[in-house]
Amino acid sequence: xxxxxxxxxxxxxxxxxxxxxxxxxxxxxxxxxxxxxxxxxxxxxxxxxxxxxxxxxxxxxxxxxxxxxxxxxxxxxxxxxxxxxxxxxxxxxxxxxxxxxxxxxxxxxxxxxxxxxxxxxxxxxxxxxxxxxxxxxxxxxxxxxxxxxxxxxxxxxxxxxxxxxxxxxxxxxxxxxxxxxxxxxxxxxxxxxxxxxxxxxxxxxxxxxxxxxxxxxxxxxxxxxxxxxxxxxxxxxxxxxxxxxxxxxxxxxxxxxxxxxxxxxxxxxxxxxxxxxxxxxxxxxxxxxxxxxxxxxxxxxxxxxxxxxxxxxxxxxxxxxxxxxxxxxxxxx
Amino acid sequence: xxxxxxxxxxxxxxxxxxxxxxxxxxxxxxxxxxxxxxxxxxxxxxxxxxxxxxxxxxxxxxxxxxxxxxxxxxxxxxxxxxxxxxxxxxxxxxxxxxxxxxxxxxxxxxxxxxxxxxxxxxxxxxxxxxxxxxxxxxxxxxxxxxxxxxxxxxxxxxxxxxxxxxxxxxxxxxxxxxxxxxxxxxxxxxxxxxxxxxxxxxxxxxxxxxxxxxxxxxxxxxxxxxxxxxxxxxxxxxxxxxxxxxxxxxxxxxxxxxxxxxxxxxxxxxxxxxxxxxxxxxxxxxxxxxxxxxxxxxxxxxxxxxxxxxxxxxxxxxxxxxxxxxxxxxxxx
Lengths: 333, 333
Known about the structure:
The structure is a homodimer.
Chain A: E1 11-15, H1 20-32, E2 36-41, E3 62-65, H2 71-78, E4 83-86, H3 93-98, H4 100-121, E5 126-132, H5 155-174, E6 177-183, E7 186-187, H6 200-209, E8 213-217, E9 223-224, E10 227-228, H7 229-239, E11 249-251, E12 258-259, H8 260-271, E13 275-279, H9 283-286, H10 298-304, H11 312-325, H12 327-330
Parallel strand pairs in A: 1-2, 1-4, 2-3, 4-5, 5-6, 6-11, 7-10, 8-13
Antiparallel strand pairs in A: 9-12
Helix pairs in contact in A: 1-7, 2-4, 4-5, 6-8, 8-11
């Protein structure tokens, strides 16, 4: 992987750094730069944090376990950092409907607190926020670009959009160096796969590894664009160092639109095991379902030069291999 | 004023019922219906609640003073109500930038808690939420209709949009009978006028009554559409009783677009006193200023039959007369 000279000797804070994307970021920075890596993670059971995600990291990261809403601890952690990758959050749409106030705390309140802390104690830090395509709700046109109307369909989408908007406003009103990426479905090593509440891909992987039957709702015809986690880390690193990124909002999009059925069939072909059946949509999913989605990342390609470099088959192969080797760490007990 | 038979013998909860619009709602229901009127108000100093706003009410209302985030108290207050006029909130854009976490609590968290309480304990109640044109941010076209892009420019707008979105989602996902009105600048009796942080009209009224010099920023050329509070109460009452209202979002708009300069000159002409001068925009205002705004209320006119019936001159006359008679209660000490 390419060296990252822009991060050498920088102090980099990763919120949610024990989670899926955050821990992949930590591994990358450890391997490809001389950045000082600092992590904050609440290890809240509803989020995806897992200390084992840092296993085998080539240089140690400094890990602080506390809830970002603890203003005093956050102040100490933030005051000297150069870049914040603000990736902490609760990502389950279903959980957000069952426990909406927890979702509000994790996805809105915690970020407003971080921005207030940076405004007061470190206004020069670059802050990159991981937002989500969930802001758009059900697509009114495809591919979805950044000008698509905002109409989130679940509590998670509302609170993530609030979190993103706080970052935008702290740029416009207070001059902070914020930038947001709207992620689509991300997959790869270190994602949470032991239950189905944090997205379908992780659960598919789990079922393949266990040779369990995958249930495809609604015929599996729904379209998504999956982004491999290394490509998401590429984009975050660009947004954290490129001079034109502050004040911008960028979609990430996968290398190709693909149906859920195609994804499952590809996983089965790669791993040589697994099976599936088709079933109707359960009610609690249907009401907040967005139908088919794929995005356009033309803006970030034009402005920062990012594009997803890992094809779906390659990414799925790497992910399945990673988890196959670490079954004892990632599969449910 | 017309009788309101739809509200006879109904239990009506007004959150923020000691505030500007809420207290006018209470007066109207007391005078024109046999509704049982129940009020919740935090009397938080940053909000607009004032117990004197219920002076001279023709039938008493039941008043509960607590923060809506108190789930146990809210449950007892909500469980038997037929209609909730959910008007509580923090409305100052400037305060929301200085104390964003308080704004989040008042404008997002409190409403999510109310909706959760209704979902669990009174899912059949009609809930009407007072949202705001601030969701739109700086107008991209005029007049602004409900399809205008969402891009709030200040923390208050973000949190109000989150509050509105929760109401929409609790309709779509849980079947609650919610409806939201996006209010524009509202004026009239019982509004807070003793400082400038809750909108310019109240402060203009205060300055006129004190014969103080009004400072018009940016030449006074900015356009607004002012809605008289009785017209807003009309719309809320329609939304609380009309069978087609649940699930809908409606703009309210004033009877005419008007510049700030015209408003001030009209006030001076009506009251026979007051004066003004032109000044540049202060920085803290400029950064969150939305420029000129006026809305279209064609949707609510077509669907519920609402239109603003009080012209600006008439409304300003009534407001100035109300406050002139109650200077000791509403002017700053």
